[in-house]
């Protein structure tokens, strides 16, 4: 069967137990349609880049699916009707990522150190001063 990643965003005013119930409901829908949920990751309450339906934050949840297209279509149909889910996206993948996803690997992101280190533009050449006669 094809492999999919399904990510949904739940409203910010839900409790973690309610978000877990949404993930369990999605798992049940997939399993009723002869599919399998390989992995479930809850990424937690995160800030959004812009407001969605008056929400500044959302609970993010990702499901790795091994299911047919019909099972994914039914999952998306049920998700679309749920008022607690503000956005969702399902992507077909060639293989599931082994271990934790990139969103769960916080230590790797904090160890990068390639951004924000320069402070006083240490490794860049100084700018030439502007001349008034150019304008």
Which characteristics define this entry?
alpha+beta; four-stranded antiparallel beta sheet; 3 helices; Alpha-Beta Plaits; 135 residues
Number of helices: 3
Order of helices and strands: EHEEHEH
At the fourth level of CATH, the homologous superfamily of the domain at 3-95 is: Ribosomal protein S6/Translation elongation factor EF1B
Shape: elongated
- Measure the end-to-end span: 65 Å
> Any guess at the CATH architecture of the domain at 3-95?
2-Layer Sandwich
Radius of gyration, Cα only, in angstroms? 21 Å
Percent of residues in beta strands? 25-35%
Strand order, main sheet: write it out.
2-3-1-4
**Which regions are unreliable across 5 or more consecutive residues at pLDDT < 50?**
none
The CATH class of the domain at 3-95: Alpha Beta
Q: Give the helix/strand class.
A: alpha+beta
* Biggest sheet details: 4 strands, antiparallel
Mean pLDDT: 85
Fold-level CATH name of the domain at 3-95? Alpha-Beta Plaits
Q: Please give the share of residues in helix.
A: 25-40%
Instruction: Let me know the number of strands.
Output: 4
């Amino acid at each position: 069967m094809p492999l999919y990643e399904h990510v949904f965003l739940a409203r910010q005013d839900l409790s973690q137990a309610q978000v877990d119930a949404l993930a369990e409901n999605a798992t049940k829908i997939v399993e009723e349609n002869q599919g399998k949920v390989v992995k479930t990751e809850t990424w937690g309450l995160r800030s959004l880049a812009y407001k969605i339906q008056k929400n500044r934050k959302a609970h993010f949840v990702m499901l790795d699916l091994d299911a047919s297209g019909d099972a994914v279509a039914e999952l998306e149909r049920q998700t679309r009707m749920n008022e607690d889910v503000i956005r969702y996206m399902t992507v077909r993948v060639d293989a599931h990522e082994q271990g934790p996803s990139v969103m769960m690997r916080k230590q790797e992101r904090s160890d990068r150190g390639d951004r924000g280190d320069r402070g006083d533009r240490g490794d860049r050449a100084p700018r030439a001063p502007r001349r008034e006669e150019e304008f």
